[in-house]
Amino acid sequence: MKSAKCYVRASSLMGYEQFESMNNSFSASPAVIVIGAGAAGLMAAGFSALQGRRTILLERTSDGGRKILISGGGRCNILPSRLSTSQFVTASSPTLLKKMLRAWPLAKQREFFEKELNLELALEEESGKLFPTSNRARDVRDGLVAWNRRAGVELRFDAHVVDLESQDNIWRVHLADGEVVEGSRVILATGGLSVPKTGSDGTGLSIATKLGHTINPTYPALTPLTADPPTHEELAGLSLNVRLETSGIAGALVTEGGFLFTHRGYSGPSVLDISHLPILSRMKGDTRQEVYARWVDRDEEGWRDELIKGGRWRVTAVLREVLPERLAEFLVVESGLPYDRVCSELRRDEREELIERLIRYRLPWTGDEGYKKAEVTGGGVALEEVNPKTLESKRHPGLYFCGEMLDAFGPIGGYNFLWAWGTGRSAGMSL
Ligand SMILES: Cc1cc2nc3c(=O)[nH]c(=O)nc-3n(C[C@H](O)[C@H](O)[C@H](O)COP(=O)(O)OP(=O)(O)OC[C@H]3O[C@@H](n4cnc5c(N)ncnc54)[C@H](O)[C@@H]3O)c2cc1C
Fold it and tell me: What is the CATH number assigned to the segment(s) 4-219+376-429?
Protein backbone atom coordinates (compact mmCIF):
# COMPACT_ATOMS: atom_id res chain seq x y z
CA MET A 1 0.00 0.00 0.00
CA LYS A 2 1.28 3.45 -0.84
CA SER A 3 1.02 6.18 1.74
CA ALA A 4 -0.03 9.71 0.85
CA LYS A 5 3.47 10.90 1.67
CA CYS A 6 4.96 8.49 -0.84
CA TYR A 7 2.43 9.65 -3.43
CA VAL A 8 3.69 13.19 -3.10
CA ARG A 9 7.35 12.21 -3.24
CA ALA A 10 6.87 9.98 -6.26
CA SER A 11 4.89 12.58 -8.11
CA SER A 12 7.67 15.07 -7.47
CA LEU A 13 10.10 12.72 -9.17
CA MET A 14 8.11 11.77 -12.23
CA GLY A 15 5.04 13.93 -12.76
CA TYR A 16 1.59 13.50 -11.27
CA GLU A 17 -0.29 11.77 -14.12
CA GLN A 18 2.44 9.34 -14.96
CA PHE A 19 2.71 8.31 -11.34
CA GLU A 20 -1.06 8.02 -10.86
CA SER A 21 -1.50 5.68 -13.81
CA MET A 22 1.39 3.55 -12.61
CA ASN A 23 0.06 3.55 -9.09
CA ASN A 24 -3.31 2.20 -10.21
CA SER A 25 -1.74 -0.87 -11.75
CA PHE A 26 0.79 -1.21 -8.93
CA SER A 27 -0.49 -4.41 -7.30
CA ALA A 28 -1.33 -6.06 -10.62
CA SER A 29 2.12 -5.58 -12.16
CA PRO A 30 4.58 -8.49 -12.07
CA ALA A 31 7.05 -8.14 -9.24
CA VAL A 32 10.54 -6.76 -9.47
CA ILE A 33 12.71 -8.70 -7.04
CA VAL A 34 15.71 -6.97 -5.51
CA ILE A 35 18.16 -9.28 -3.74
CA GLY A 36 20.17 -7.66 -0.93
CA ALA A 37 19.15 -4.70 1.24
CA GLY A 38 22.55 -3.01 1.40
CA ALA A 39 23.31 0.46 0.08
CA ALA A 40 22.74 -0.49 -3.57
CA GLY A 41 19.69 -2.73 -3.04
CA LEU A 42 17.86 -0.23 -0.83
CA MET A 43 18.37 2.45 -3.47
CA ALA A 44 17.34 0.13 -6.31
CA ALA A 45 14.19 -1.10 -4.56
CA GLY A 46 13.04 2.39 -3.53
CA PHE A 47 13.39 3.82 -7.04
CA SER A 48 11.78 0.75 -8.60
CA ALA A 49 8.72 1.05 -6.34
CA LEU A 50 8.49 4.79 -6.94
CA GLN A 51 7.99 4.01 -10.60
CA GLY A 52 4.86 2.12 -9.71
CA ARG A 53 6.29 -1.37 -9.87
CA ARG A 54 5.46 -3.96 -7.27
CA THR A 55 8.88 -4.43 -5.68
CA ILE A 56 10.01 -7.13 -3.29
CA LEU A 57 13.31 -6.69 -1.45
CA LEU A 58 14.82 -9.94 -0.14
CA GLU A 59 17.50 -9.62 2.55
CA ARG A 60 19.19 -12.48 4.36
CA THR A 61 19.93 -10.64 7.63
CA SER A 62 17.22 -9.59 10.06
CA ASP A 63 17.61 -5.85 9.35
CA GLY A 64 19.77 -5.13 6.25
CA GLY A 65 22.24 -2.30 5.63
CA ARG A 66 24.78 -3.64 8.10
CA LYS A 67 27.75 -2.20 6.21
CA ILE A 68 26.09 1.20 6.37
CA LEU A 69 25.89 0.77 10.15
CA ILE A 70 29.62 0.10 10.55
CA SER A 71 30.73 2.58 7.89
CA GLY A 72 32.86 5.61 8.64
CA GLY A 73 33.52 4.37 12.17
CA GLY A 74 29.76 4.32 12.86
CA ARG A 75 29.32 7.84 11.42
CA CYS A 76 28.78 6.83 7.74
CA ASN A 77 30.82 8.83 5.28
CA ILE A 78 27.82 8.96 3.00
CA LEU A 79 29.45 10.80 0.04
CA PRO A 80 32.56 12.72 -0.92
CA SER A 81 32.23 16.51 -1.27
CA ARG A 82 34.27 16.41 -4.48
CA LEU A 83 34.71 13.61 -6.96
CA SER A 84 37.65 12.56 -9.06
CA THR A 85 36.38 9.71 -11.23
CA SER A 86 39.91 8.69 -12.23
CA GLN A 87 40.43 7.42 -8.69
CA PHE A 88 38.07 4.48 -9.23
CA VAL A 89 39.68 1.11 -9.89
CA THR A 90 38.37 -1.47 -12.36
CA ALA A 91 39.74 -4.19 -14.59
CA SER A 92 36.87 -3.39 -16.97
CA SER A 93 36.62 -0.39 -19.29
CA PRO A 94 37.19 2.90 -17.39
CA THR A 95 35.04 4.64 -20.00
CA LEU A 96 32.07 2.44 -19.11
CA LEU A 97 32.70 3.04 -15.43
CA LYS A 98 32.64 6.81 -15.95
CA LYS A 99 29.42 6.53 -17.96
CA MET A 100 27.81 4.65 -15.07
CA LEU A 101 29.04 7.26 -12.59
CA ARG A 102 27.61 10.11 -14.65
CA ALA A 103 24.07 8.71 -14.39
CA TRP A 104 23.50 10.21 -10.92
CA PRO A 105 25.91 13.10 -10.33
CA LEU A 106 27.28 13.80 -6.88
CA ALA A 107 25.25 17.01 -6.44
CA LYS A 108 22.01 15.16 -7.23
CA GLN A 109 22.88 12.36 -4.82
CA ARG A 110 23.50 14.90 -2.09
CA GLU A 111 20.19 16.55 -2.87
CA PHE A 112 18.41 13.19 -2.61
CA PHE A 113 19.67 12.58 0.92
CA GLU A 114 19.01 16.12 2.06
CA LYS A 115 15.59 16.58 0.42
CA GLU A 116 14.04 13.14 -0.04
CA LEU A 117 15.46 11.57 3.11
CA ASN A 118 15.55 14.77 5.13
CA LEU A 119 19.06 13.92 6.23
CA GLU A 120 21.21 16.95 6.88
CA LEU A 121 24.83 16.46 5.76
CA ALA A 122 27.95 18.15 7.08
CA LEU A 123 31.37 18.54 5.50
CA GLU A 124 34.43 17.39 7.40
CA GLU A 125 36.83 20.07 6.16
CA GLU A 126 40.15 18.27 6.61
CA SER A 127 39.07 15.12 4.75
CA GLY A 128 36.48 16.51 2.32
CA LYS A 129 34.03 13.79 3.46
CA LEU A 130 30.30 14.26 3.99
CA PHE A 131 28.62 12.77 7.06
CA PRO A 132 25.10 13.08 8.45
CA THR A 133 25.19 15.95 10.93
CA SER A 134 23.93 13.54 13.59
CA ASN A 135 27.14 11.51 12.98
CA ARG A 136 24.96 8.41 13.26
CA ALA A 137 25.21 5.81 10.51
CA ARG A 138 21.97 4.34 11.85
CA ASP A 139 20.11 7.44 10.66
CA VAL A 140 21.22 6.69 7.09
CA ARG A 141 20.27 3.01 7.21
CA ASP A 142 16.97 3.64 9.00
CA GLY A 143 16.19 6.57 6.70
CA LEU A 144 16.62 4.40 3.62
CA VAL A 145 14.54 1.56 5.06
CA ALA A 146 11.75 4.00 5.99
CA TRP A 147 11.92 5.54 2.49
CA ASN A 148 11.56 2.04 1.01
CA ARG A 149 8.50 1.40 3.15
CA ARG A 150 6.95 4.71 2.15
CA ALA A 151 7.59 3.88 -1.50
CA GLY A 152 5.67 0.64 -1.03
CA VAL A 153 8.57 -1.83 -1.21
CA GLU A 154 7.74 -5.22 0.34
CA LEU A 155 10.72 -5.75 2.59
CA ARG A 156 11.43 -9.34 3.56
CA PHE A 157 14.22 -9.88 6.06
CA ASP A 158 15.70 -13.29 6.99
CA ALA A 159 15.19 -14.27 3.36
CA HIS A 160 18.38 -16.03 2.26
CA VAL A 161 18.56 -16.41 -1.51
CA VAL A 162 20.46 -19.48 -2.66
CA ASP A 163 19.69 -19.69 -6.36
CA LEU A 164 18.14 -17.98 -9.32
CA GLU A 165 16.80 -19.29 -12.64
CA SER A 166 14.68 -17.96 -15.45
CA GLN A 167 12.04 -19.70 -17.52
CA ASP A 168 9.66 -18.18 -20.07
CA ASN A 169 10.56 -14.64 -18.96
CA ILE A 170 9.83 -15.41 -15.32
CA TRP A 171 12.63 -15.30 -12.77
CA ARG A 172 12.41 -17.85 -9.95
CA VAL A 173 14.33 -16.91 -6.82
CA HIS A 174 15.03 -19.84 -4.49
CA LEU A 175 15.31 -19.21 -0.77
CA ALA A 176 17.24 -21.38 1.71
CA ASP A 177 13.98 -22.55 3.34
CA GLY A 178 12.69 -23.93 0.02
CA GLU A 179 10.34 -21.07 -0.84
CA VAL A 180 10.39 -19.80 -4.42
CA VAL A 181 9.63 -16.14 -5.17
CA GLU A 182 8.71 -15.29 -8.75
CA GLY A 183 9.16 -12.01 -10.59
CA SER A 184 9.53 -10.51 -14.03
CA ARG A 185 12.87 -8.81 -13.26
CA VAL A 186 15.62 -9.40 -10.74
CA ILE A 187 18.17 -6.91 -9.43
CA LEU A 188 21.18 -8.60 -7.84
CA ALA A 189 22.61 -6.33 -5.13
CA THR A 190 24.26 -8.85 -2.83
CA GLY A 191 27.58 -7.02 -2.48
CA GLY A 192 30.99 -8.59 -2.73
CA LEU A 193 33.02 -10.71 -0.33
CA SER A 194 34.16 -8.11 2.17
CA VAL A 195 33.29 -8.35 5.88
CA PRO A 196 31.12 -11.46 5.46
CA LYS A 197 29.58 -10.99 8.91
CA THR A 198 27.54 -8.12 7.44
CA GLY A 199 25.72 -10.61 5.20
CA SER A 200 27.69 -10.52 1.96
CA ASP A 201 29.26 -13.90 1.34
CA GLY A 202 29.53 -13.87 -2.45
CA THR A 203 26.30 -15.74 -3.23
CA GLY A 204 25.41 -13.17 -5.85
CA LEU A 205 28.78 -13.52 -7.54
CA SER A 206 28.37 -17.33 -7.60
CA ILE A 207 24.92 -16.94 -9.13
CA ALA A 208 26.27 -14.54 -11.77
CA THR A 209 29.05 -17.02 -12.58
CA LYS A 210 26.53 -19.83 -12.89
CA LEU A 211 24.50 -17.67 -15.27
CA GLY A 212 27.54 -17.37 -17.52
CA HIS A 213 28.76 -13.90 -16.54
CA THR A 214 32.44 -13.02 -16.56
CA ILE A 215 33.64 -12.21 -13.07
CA ASN A 216 36.91 -10.32 -13.15
CA PRO A 217 39.15 -11.84 -10.45
CA THR A 218 38.07 -10.68 -7.01
CA TYR A 219 40.40 -9.56 -4.23
CA PRO A 220 40.19 -7.70 -0.92
CA ALA A 221 40.67 -3.95 -1.33
CA LEU A 222 40.94 -1.07 1.13
CA THR A 223 42.34 -3.54 3.66
CA PRO A 224 45.28 -3.27 6.11
CA LEU A 225 48.65 -4.71 5.11
CA THR A 226 50.52 -7.14 7.34
CA ALA A 227 54.21 -7.80 8.01
CA ASP A 228 55.54 -11.18 9.07
CA PRO A 229 57.61 -10.96 11.20
CA PRO A 230 55.79 -7.92 12.63
CA THR A 231 58.82 -5.61 12.45
CA HIS A 232 56.98 -2.60 13.86
CA GLU A 233 54.90 -4.32 16.55
CA GLU A 234 56.39 -2.12 19.27
CA LEU A 235 54.94 0.94 17.47
CA ALA A 236 51.38 -0.46 17.47
CA GLY A 237 48.80 2.24 18.09
CA LEU A 238 51.00 5.06 16.82
CA SER A 239 49.44 7.17 14.06
CA LEU A 240 50.63 10.03 11.88
CA ASN A 241 50.07 11.57 8.46
CA VAL A 242 52.36 10.18 5.78
CA ARG A 243 52.90 10.00 2.04
CA LEU A 244 53.03 6.49 0.57
CA GLU A 245 54.29 5.58 -2.84
CA THR A 246 54.23 2.30 -4.71
CA SER A 247 55.18 1.16 -8.15
CA GLY A 248 55.53 -2.25 -9.70
CA ILE A 249 53.83 -4.84 -11.82
CA ALA A 250 50.33 -3.87 -10.57
CA GLY A 251 50.77 -0.15 -11.26
CA ALA A 252 51.93 3.01 -9.52
CA LEU A 253 50.14 5.15 -6.95
CA VAL A 254 50.82 7.84 -4.36
CA THR A 255 48.54 8.26 -1.36
CA GLU A 256 48.64 10.78 1.45
CA GLY A 257 46.89 10.79 4.80
CA GLY A 258 46.49 8.89 8.04
CA PHE A 259 48.80 5.94 8.75
CA LEU A 260 48.51 3.60 11.73
CA PHE A 261 50.98 1.01 13.01
CA THR A 262 49.06 -2.09 14.11
CA HIS A 263 50.19 -5.22 15.97
CA ARG A 264 50.27 -7.10 12.69
CA GLY A 265 51.25 -4.38 10.21
CA TYR A 266 49.88 -1.13 8.83
CA SER A 267 46.48 0.50 8.48
CA GLY A 268 44.87 3.94 8.13
CA PRO A 269 43.47 5.64 5.01
CA SER A 270 46.83 6.03 3.21
CA VAL A 271 47.49 2.29 3.56
CA LEU A 272 43.94 1.16 2.72
CA ASP A 273 43.93 3.34 -0.41
CA ILE A 274 47.18 1.81 -1.69
CA SER A 275 46.59 -1.79 -0.51
CA HIS A 276 45.08 -3.13 -3.73
CA LEU A 277 48.35 -2.73 -5.64
CA PRO A 278 50.52 -4.93 -3.37
CA ILE A 279 47.59 -7.39 -3.23
CA LEU A 280 47.20 -7.47 -7.02
CA SER A 281 50.94 -7.87 -7.53
CA ARG A 282 50.96 -10.84 -5.19
CA MET A 283 48.01 -12.35 -7.06
CA LYS A 284 50.20 -12.08 -10.15
CA GLY A 285 52.97 -13.94 -8.31
CA ASP A 286 55.23 -10.90 -7.90
CA THR A 287 56.00 -9.59 -4.41
CA ARG A 288 58.29 -6.79 -5.54
CA GLN A 289 55.53 -4.16 -5.42
CA GLU A 290 57.42 -2.09 -2.87
CA VAL A 291 55.60 0.45 -0.72
CA TYR A 292 57.68 3.40 0.50
CA ALA A 293 56.73 5.84 3.24
CA ARG A 294 57.78 9.46 3.60
CA TRP A 295 57.04 10.11 7.25
CA VAL A 296 56.81 13.89 7.09
CA ASP A 297 56.55 16.50 4.38
CA ARG A 298 60.29 17.24 4.24
CA ASP A 299 62.60 16.32 1.38
CA GLU A 300 66.19 15.03 1.33
CA GLU A 301 67.72 18.53 1.29
CA GLY A 302 65.51 19.66 4.15
CA TRP A 303 66.60 16.75 6.35
CA ARG A 304 70.27 17.24 5.45
CA ASP A 305 70.06 20.89 6.48
CA GLU A 306 68.33 20.07 9.76
CA LEU A 307 70.80 17.31 10.67
CA ILE A 308 73.81 19.49 9.88
CA LYS A 309 72.32 22.48 11.71
CA GLY A 310 71.60 20.19 14.68
CA GLY A 311 75.20 20.52 15.98
CA ARG A 312 75.36 19.23 19.56
CA TRP A 313 71.70 18.25 19.57
CA ARG A 314 70.90 14.56 19.71
CA VAL A 315 69.74 13.12 16.39
CA THR A 316 66.61 11.76 18.09
CA ALA A 317 65.79 15.28 19.34
CA VAL A 318 65.96 16.70 15.81
CA LEU A 319 63.69 13.93 14.52
CA ARG A 320 61.28 14.31 17.43
CA GLU A 321 60.60 17.90 16.43
CA VAL A 322 58.47 16.65 13.55
CA LEU A 323 57.99 12.91 14.21
CA PRO A 324 56.27 11.05 17.04
CA GLU A 325 58.87 10.22 19.70
CA ARG A 326 58.55 6.42 19.44
CA LEU A 327 59.02 6.48 15.67
CA ALA A 328 61.98 8.88 15.90
CA GLU A 329 63.74 6.57 18.34
CA PHE A 330 62.87 3.47 16.32
CA LEU A 331 64.35 4.95 13.13
CA VAL A 332 67.56 6.04 14.86
CA VAL A 333 68.09 2.65 16.48
CA GLU A 334 67.14 0.78 13.29
CA SER A 335 69.79 2.82 11.44
CA GLY A 336 72.37 1.29 13.78
CA LEU A 337 73.08 4.57 15.58
CA PRO A 338 73.49 4.80 19.33
CA TYR A 339 70.42 6.39 20.90
CA ASP A 340 72.41 9.38 22.18
CA ARG A 341 74.40 10.15 19.01
CA VAL A 342 74.60 13.91 18.44
CA CYS A 343 74.25 15.47 14.99
CA SER A 344 77.81 16.82 14.75
CA GLU A 345 79.17 13.29 15.27
CA LEU A 346 77.12 11.76 12.46
CA ARG A 347 79.34 10.39 9.70
CA ARG A 348 78.23 11.33 6.19
CA ASP A 349 77.22 7.73 5.32
CA GLU A 350 75.25 7.43 8.58
CA ARG A 351 73.43 10.67 7.86
CA GLU A 352 72.58 9.65 4.30
CA GLU A 353 71.26 6.26 5.45
CA LEU A 354 69.09 7.88 8.08
CA ILE A 355 67.75 10.37 5.52
CA GLU A 356 66.82 7.48 3.22
CA ARG A 357 64.77 5.95 6.06
CA LEU A 358 63.06 9.28 6.63
CA ILE A 359 62.07 10.03 3.06
CA ARG A 360 61.83 6.58 1.46
CA TYR A 361 61.18 3.95 4.10
CA ARG A 362 60.45 0.52 2.64
CA LEU A 363 57.49 -1.01 4.44
CA PRO A 364 58.24 -4.70 4.90
CA TRP A 365 54.69 -5.82 4.00
CA THR A 366 54.24 -9.53 3.40
CA GLY A 367 50.46 -9.93 3.27
CA ASP A 368 47.10 -8.33 4.04
CA GLU A 369 44.18 -8.68 6.43
CA GLY A 370 41.97 -10.03 3.63
CA TYR A 371 38.19 -9.84 3.28
CA LYS A 372 37.68 -9.95 7.06
CA LYS A 373 38.76 -6.30 7.23
CA ALA A 374 38.47 -5.18 3.59
CA GLU A 375 36.10 -2.24 3.13
CA VAL A 376 35.37 -3.38 -0.40
CA THR A 377 35.93 -6.15 -2.93
CA GLY A 378 38.03 -5.50 -6.02
CA GLY A 379 36.95 -7.19 -9.24
CA GLY A 380 33.43 -8.49 -9.85
CA VAL A 381 30.92 -8.64 -12.69
CA ALA A 382 32.65 -7.30 -15.83
CA LEU A 383 31.20 -3.90 -16.74
CA GLU A 384 31.28 -4.82 -20.43
CA GLU A 385 28.51 -7.34 -19.75
CA VAL A 386 25.94 -4.83 -18.51
CA ASN A 387 24.22 -1.99 -20.30
CA PRO A 388 25.92 1.10 -18.81
CA LYS A 389 22.68 3.06 -18.65
CA THR A 390 20.26 0.46 -17.31
CA LEU A 391 22.72 -2.00 -15.72
CA GLU A 392 20.77 -4.82 -17.33
CA SER A 393 22.72 -7.96 -18.11
CA LYS A 394 23.65 -8.29 -21.76
CA ARG A 395 23.40 -12.07 -21.33
CA HIS A 396 20.06 -12.30 -19.55
CA PRO A 397 17.28 -9.77 -20.22
CA GLY A 398 15.48 -8.94 -17.01
CA LEU A 399 18.57 -9.40 -14.81
CA TYR A 400 20.34 -6.35 -13.36
CA PHE A 401 23.45 -5.81 -11.23
CA CYS A 402 24.44 -2.95 -8.94
CA GLY A 403 26.81 -1.97 -6.14
CA GLU A 404 29.90 -3.79 -4.98
CA MET A 405 29.09 -6.84 -7.12
CA LEU A 406 30.19 -4.88 -10.16
CA ASP A 407 33.87 -4.59 -11.04
CA ALA A 408 34.64 -1.18 -9.53
CA PHE A 409 35.65 0.44 -6.27
CA GLY A 410 36.94 3.81 -5.22
CA PRO A 411 39.20 5.17 -2.50
CA ILE A 412 38.22 5.96 1.07
CA GLY A 413 36.10 9.11 1.30
CA GLY A 414 32.52 8.19 0.37
CA TYR A 415 33.37 6.99 -3.13
CA ASN A 416 32.05 3.49 -2.55
CA PHE A 417 28.67 4.58 -1.30
CA LEU A 418 28.48 7.00 -4.22
CA TRP A 419 28.98 3.99 -6.51
CA ALA A 420 26.42 1.88 -4.63
CA TRP A 421 23.79 4.66 -4.48
CA GLY A 422 24.31 5.59 -8.14
CA THR A 423 24.28 2.10 -9.64
CA GLY A 424 21.41 1.07 -7.35
CA ARG A 425 19.32 3.98 -8.61
CA SER A 426 20.19 3.26 -12.26
CA ALA A 427 19.05 -0.36 -11.90
CA GLY A 428 15.86 0.62 -10.04
CA MET A 429 14.93 3.44 -12.41
CA SER A 430 15.56 1.52 -15.60
CA LEU A 431 12.95 -1.14 -15.04
C1 LIG B 1 34.05 -1.28 7.84
C2 LIG B 1 33.57 -0.62 6.59
C3 LIG B 1 33.45 0.75 6.55
C4 LIG B 1 33.05 1.38 5.36
N5 LIG B 1 32.89 2.72 5.36
C6 LIG B 1 32.51 3.35 4.23
C7 LIG B 1 32.28 4.75 4.23
O8 LIG B 1 32.32 5.43 5.28
N9 LIG B 1 31.95 5.34 3.02
C10 LIG B 1 31.83 4.62 1.87
O11 LIG B 1 31.55 5.20 0.82
N12 LIG B 1 31.97 3.28 1.87
C13 LIG B 1 32.28 2.63 3.02
N14 LIG B 1 32.41 1.27 3.02
C15 LIG B 1 32.12 0.53 1.78
C16 LIG B 1 30.60 0.40 1.60
O17 LIG B 1 30.05 -0.05 2.83
C18 LIG B 1 30.27 -0.58 0.48
O19 LIG B 1 30.90 -0.14 -0.70
C20 LIG B 1 28.77 -0.66 0.22
O21 LIG B 1 28.11 -1.02 1.43
C22 LIG B 1 28.43 -1.68 -0.85
O23 LIG B 1 27.03 -1.73 -0.96
P24 LIG B 1 26.27 -2.98 -1.60
O25 LIG B 1 24.84 -2.73 -1.38
O26 LIG B 1 26.77 -3.21 -2.97
O27 LIG B 1 26.75 -4.23 -0.75
P28 LIG B 1 26.48 -4.59 0.79
O29 LIG B 1 26.45 -3.34 1.59
O30 LIG B 1 27.48 -5.61 1.15
O31 LIG B 1 25.01 -5.18 0.80
C32 LIG B 1 24.71 -6.45 0.31
C33 LIG B 1 23.46 -6.92 0.99
O34 LIG B 1 23.03 -8.14 0.38
C35 LIG B 1 22.66 -9.06 1.37
N36 LIG B 1 22.86 -10.41 0.83
C37 LIG B 1 24.02 -10.97 0.48
N38 LIG B 1 23.82 -12.22 0.03
C39 LIG B 1 22.49 -12.43 0.11
C40 LIG B 1 21.67 -13.54 -0.19
N41 LIG B 1 22.20 -14.66 -0.67
N42 LIG B 1 20.33 -13.45 0.01
C43 LIG B 1 19.80 -12.29 0.51
N44 LIG B 1 20.53 -11.22 0.82
C45 LIG B 1 21.86 -11.29 0.63
C46 LIG B 1 23.61 -8.76 2.53
O47 LIG B 1 23.11 -9.25 3.75
C48 LIG B 1 23.68 -7.25 2.48
O49 LIG B 1 22.67 -6.65 3.25
C50 LIG B 1 32.77 0.61 4.20
C51 LIG B 1 32.87 -0.77 4.27
C52 LIG B 1 33.25 -1.40 5.44
C53 LIG B 1 33.32 -2.89 5.48
Answer: 3.50.50.60
